């Protein structure tokens, strides 16, 4: 394995590709040793390097990562970095990230940040996100609707089934696919009925997602579920 000294030296290189390779080589380095090196390039002149560093903070988890990522989410001038920070907070699965992510969803001016915040709220598996995600269903941005449906499935928001079923006939096949995937985490009789409909979808990926979710619901013995 490459030595920490060599990685540290590579991170000082004037060559962007060298710095990116150095970050990639931290993959097998323990978090406590990796994070101080990642911090060296959090303000790198290259957005690609910065993006890699922010992503790495979500994977190499120490006590320092959460406050660093929240600061980037709330103050970085580059929307791509704010979106990366939101995504990384989702990887941390730290429930403290709920409020910063909700703020980003409501207040950030860039759709990519709001999209990343919605996805991250799903990754947190925090049921408090349900109302935020239901509101995201009203967005004019197709990708936000996709993210919200997927996240509602992730947090197992059973009460949201009625709200997301209206997308079963969406013109966007990715929305229908996200719906089919989400319903596999939402065991109700209405989910079962909708999945049987989506199983006949004209798009093969939607039909396949519905089949997988139907299998999951059958393993949960959904037919005996009292929810409707």
Mean pLDDT, to the nearest integer, reads 94
- The total count of strands amounts to 0
Portion in beta strands: under 5%
What distance separates the N and C termini? Answer: 55 Å
Overall geometry: elongated
Structural commentary:
The protein is mainly alpha-helical. Among the domains are: 62 residues, no CATH class; 59 residues, no CATH class. It is built from 14 helices and no strands. Helix 1 runs antiparallel to helix 2, helix 9 packs antiparallel against helix 10 and helix 13 packs antiparallel against helix 14. The longest helix is centred in the last third of the chain and has 16 residues. The C terminus is likely disordered.
Q: Nutshell version of this structure?
A:
It is built from 14 helices and no strands. The protein has helices at about 5-10, 15-25, 30-40, 45-60, 65-75, 80-90, 100-105, 110-125, 130-135, 140-155, 160-165, 175-185, 190-200, 205-220.
Would you spell out the secondary-structure blueprint of this structure?
Blueprint: H1 4-11, H2 16-24, H3 31-39, H4 47-59, H5 65-75, H6 79-92, H7 98-107, H8 111-124, H9 130-136, H10 142-154, H11 161-165, H12 173-183, H13 189-198, H14 204-219
Helix pairs in contact: 1-2, 2-4, 3-4, 4-6, 5-6, 6-8, 7-8, 8-10, 9-10, 10-12, 12-14, 13-14
Descriptors:
single chain; mainly alpha; 14 helices; 0% strand
